[in-house]
């Protein structure tokens, strides 16, 4: 293998023989292997997938894996028919351009990108000819952190289909000694008894090798049951001393995790977002979690609650003791919250800081207590101070140095990077909470991590003449069940022993803990252990150092070095690039930059069926990797059905509005109002360019778009349970524009679970039709070639053109390819577009 994307010949002989497990698309996985070696908490993981396209035609092969947050990717390769391609780093726009150029030349191409929602998603896709064999392989490193008394090595295992050979192999080497190792049945009872585990004093081996028959969901199923996280949990032995010093190859790692200590008292303020976007499941789950959390407070703790929307309210003006009566009153207060209004994060945090400072000034706080603020929010600020950097500055300037701020971001509308910066700058941590039925358990699990402070003001000291380049060695708090890790370089050639002194404040006294370790104490064990990583101390020191630099210079360091490339966010990685693969919403017909698209993309975006301007529909066909476009020339005031699924009880309709006047003898039309009807839930949602109205039986509430977002990213996501999701975007124009008006766009992810009877202008394409495009030829205009498209028994003449995606480039947009069907989609859309006219915003189609 060579650098800079060049290649060398190799072979893929293993598993080439024998019957392959093929899907309906003639794609099969020869083998799917995950090998992971953990040396003293440092995990080196390799994921390898060997795939073959047995079809006679070209199609896409996909490698889609989840990488743990904070992992460092240090190698990614693709072997195509014996030729190995190495990944290279490019700036995102340059990567997309290189990918598109390679695909346009008919070359096999792939691009690696992170998902817009899941920043840990790593995906490579190649369009390859029939008979092609591809081996994907990625290597990454992570430091496994101790949480709630356990180290958990989590391996997302989602091969997507049956694999002829599937293997997970995990080896653990812990010089401290293993207290226990177990493999919870996280993949389900289907795989009970398949995993093997062997454990020694200091090392363990875990193996998971299900046969093809064991992988099947049922004996006759062609789908795989392997879909989830494979988890290995363990803890190490600890002696009653000042942590564990491990020294090897010129570096030291100091692990510190005492347990047998009394908890420190807490002074805790819960700051809870109760704006309109928290309405429904998010608020219900938050209330459930808070009732449990309040019940877990200790008698020595002081607490209060602040809830905020566009206003900020205190449950109590001061901190109060966690007595049974106060906790019961707090639960009743939480239970009575009704979400509505905007989001004033700045004032809410400043109010919390003020309450803590006043309590300290009045002498209410135990000198050995730990003060913290826990912020729970699901959105960006929309009221009060809106500039995120100003909010950060205000908090930093006002918060006392002994107060920690923890942030919980619910869902994906929240600016999680902002919450993470806010927490890291103020001695805390952040966590994203998915806004679903698991919200409550996730919140409680996060609280449990910070609910038991055992030490404060923890300092690690080493002889200056013996060590250098020591990572962070001062910590505000240590919480029970976690672990503090310090690393550095040690002059092992001139020193025989390394001494450390730890000072800290405990519940009843100050602590001074000393330890002394031989610099060659691990040499014999590690040099004889064939699976141990000989550079684990160096790599772990580098990992801690880089994370420390990122925390200190958040947003200033370019994260583009593959060798130490953090997964959030991943750079685009072109490996060498076919038209159509880059189509992604929101795409719009050629128009003025006065309509900036409201959803910027980080790298290429997943194509979704959607409509936008004039009503302009773009349907992405996954099987053929083509985009089909058509316009609907309806009249203002008419209502068109987009989704009609009586079996699922879901209807989505859009009402047409017109421009202010005709231009070039044509009146442009748009969607100005969209109605969602979830019949089985009794819920109606009406979204216009001015308001968002929720109707649940006799209950109705309205939100202004101003309260949803005052930024350019005007969007609202509607999620029904976990099965349905719709994204609506508001396109604003200059109010005094002589022609254009505000309008709406809607985007539907392909994961929506509609029934087989779904129909409508968009719904009819949820079960993807067979489409064949051929005989590409010059059109009436040289820049717009024509082709013949066969679909639904029709032969249509379609025109090649370019649409614009304004997410990446707000001013000029990014051009993407599309085949245009004329005459309001005639031949591509079932029947005539007038067949889709309905009387009301919540109507279902009649006899689709």
Task: Provide a compact summary of the structure.
The protein has twelve helices and 50 strands. It is mainly β and 848 residues long.
* Record field, number of beta strands: 50
Largest sheet: 11 strands, mixed
Average pLDDT number: 80
Radius of gyration: 29 Å
Task: Using the alpha-carbon principal axes, give the shape.
Answer: globular
What is the distance, rounded to the nearest whole angstrom, between the alpha carbons of the first and last residues?
Answer: 57 Å
GO molecular function, one term: serine-type endopeptidase inhibitor activity
Domain VIT: 13-142
Keywords: Glycoprotein, Protease inhibitor, Secreted, Serine protease inhibitor, Signal
Protein name: Inter-alpha-trypsin inhibitor heavy chain 2
Highlighted features:
single chain; 848 residues; mainly beta; eleven-stranded mixed beta sheet; ten-stranded mixed beta sheet; 12 helices; 15% helix; disordered N terminus; secreted; ITI_HC_C; serine protease inhibitor; Inter-alpha-trypsin inhibitor heavy chain 2
């Amino acid at each position: 293998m060579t650098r800079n994307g060049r290649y060398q010949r190799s072979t893929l002989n293993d598993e080439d023989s024998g019957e392959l497990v093929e899907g309906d698309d003639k794609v099969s996985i020869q083998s799917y292997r995950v090998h992971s070696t953990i040396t003293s908490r440092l995990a080196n993981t390799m994921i390898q997938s060997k795939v073959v396209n047995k079809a006679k035609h070209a199609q896409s092969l996909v490698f889609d894996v989840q990488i743990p947050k904070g992992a460092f990717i240090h190698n990614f390769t693709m072997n195509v028919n014996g030729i190995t391609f190495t990944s290279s780093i490019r700036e995102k726009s340059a990567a997309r351009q290189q990918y598109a150029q390679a695909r346009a030349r008919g070359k096999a191409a792939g691009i690696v990108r992170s998902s817009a929602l899941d920043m840990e998603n790593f995906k490579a896709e190649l369009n390859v000819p029939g008979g092609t064999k591809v081996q994907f392989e990625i290597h990454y490193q992570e430091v496994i952190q101790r949480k709630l008394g356990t180290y958990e090595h989590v391996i997302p295992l989602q091969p997507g289909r049956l694999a002829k050979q599937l293997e997970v192999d995990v080896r653990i080497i812990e010089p401290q000694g293993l207290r226990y190792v177990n493999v919870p049945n996280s993949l389900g009872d289907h795989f009970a008894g398949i995993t093997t585990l062997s454990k020694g004093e200091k090392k363990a081996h875990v193996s998971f090798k299900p046969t093809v028959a064991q992988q099947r969901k049922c004996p006759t199923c062609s789908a795989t049951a392997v879909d989830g996280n494979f988890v290995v949990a363990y803890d190490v032995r600890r002696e009653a001393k000042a942590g564990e010093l491990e020294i090897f190859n010129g570096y030291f790692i100091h692990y510190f995790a005492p347990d047998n200590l009394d908890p420190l008292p807490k002074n805790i303020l819960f700051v809870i977002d109760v704006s309109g976007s928290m309405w429904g499941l998010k608020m219900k789950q938050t209330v459930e979690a808070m009732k449990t959390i309040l019940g877990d407070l200790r008698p020595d703790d002081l607490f209060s609650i602040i809830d905020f929307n566009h206003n900020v309210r205190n449950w109590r003006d001061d901190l109060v003791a966690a007595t049974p009566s106060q906790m019961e009153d707090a639960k009743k207060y939480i239970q009575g919250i009704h979400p509505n209004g905007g989001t004033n994060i700045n004032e809410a945090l400043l109010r919390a800081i003020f309450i803590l400072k006043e309590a300290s000034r009045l002498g209410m706080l135990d000198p050995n207590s730990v003060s913290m603020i826990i912020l729970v929010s699901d959105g960006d600020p929309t009221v009060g101070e809106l500039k995120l950097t100003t909010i950060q500055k205000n908090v930093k300037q006002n918060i006392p140095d002994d107060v920690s701020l923890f942030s919980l971001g619910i869902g994906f509308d929240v600016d999680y990077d902002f919450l993470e910066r806010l927490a890291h700058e103020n001695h805390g941590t952040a966590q994203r909470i998915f806004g679903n039925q698991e919200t409550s358990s996730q919140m409680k699990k996060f609280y449990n991590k910070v609910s038991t402070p055992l030490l404060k003001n923890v300092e690690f000291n080493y002889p200056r003449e013996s060590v250098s380049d020591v990572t962070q060695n001062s910590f505000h708090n240590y919480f029970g069940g976690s672990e503090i890790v310090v690393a550095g370089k040690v002059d092992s050639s001139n020193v025989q022993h390394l001494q450390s002194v730890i000072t800290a404040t405990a519940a009843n006294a100050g602590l001074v803990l000393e330890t002394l370790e031989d610099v060659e104490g691990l040499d014999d064990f590690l040099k004889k252990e064939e699976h141990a990583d000989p550079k684990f101390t160096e790599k772990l020191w580098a990992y801690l150092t880089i994370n420390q630099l990122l925390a200190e210079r958040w947003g200033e360091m370019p994260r583009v070095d593959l060798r130490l490339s953090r997964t959030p966010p991943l750079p685009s990685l072109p490996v060498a690039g076919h038209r159509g693969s880059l189509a992604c919403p929101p795409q719009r017909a050629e128009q003025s930059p006065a309509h900036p698209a409201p959803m910027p993309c980080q790298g290429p975006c997943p194509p979704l069926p959607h409509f936008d301007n004039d009503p302009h529909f773009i349907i992405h066909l996954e099987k053929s990797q083509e985009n089909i476009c058509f316009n609907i020339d309806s009249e203002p005031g008419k209502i068109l059905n987009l989704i009609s699924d009586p079996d699922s009880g879901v209807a989505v309709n859009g009402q047409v509005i017109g421009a202010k006047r005709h231009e070039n003898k044509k009146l442009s039309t748009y969607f100005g109002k969209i109605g969602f009807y979830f019949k089985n839930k009794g819920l109606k949602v009406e979204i216009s360019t001015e308001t968002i109205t929720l109707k649940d039986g006799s209950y109705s509430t309205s939100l202004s778009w101003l309260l949803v977002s005052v930024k350019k990213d005007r969007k609202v996501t509607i999620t029904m349970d976990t099965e349905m999701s719709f994204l609506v975007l508001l396109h604003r124009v200059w109010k005094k524009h002589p022609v254009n008006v505000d309008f709406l766009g809607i985007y539907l992810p392909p994961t929506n679970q509609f029934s087989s009877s779904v129909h409508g202008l968009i719904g009819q394409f949820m079960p993807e039709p067979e489409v064949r495009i051929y005989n590409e030829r010059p059109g009436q205009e040289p820049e717009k070639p024509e082709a013949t498209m066969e679909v639904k028994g029709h032969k249509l003449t379609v025109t090649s053109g370019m649409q614009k995606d304004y997410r990446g480039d707000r001013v000029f947009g990014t051009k993407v390819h599309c085949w245009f069907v004329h005459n309001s989609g005639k031949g591509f859309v079932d029947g005539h577009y007038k067949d889709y006219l309905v009387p009301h915003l919540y109507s279902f189609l009649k006899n689709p």
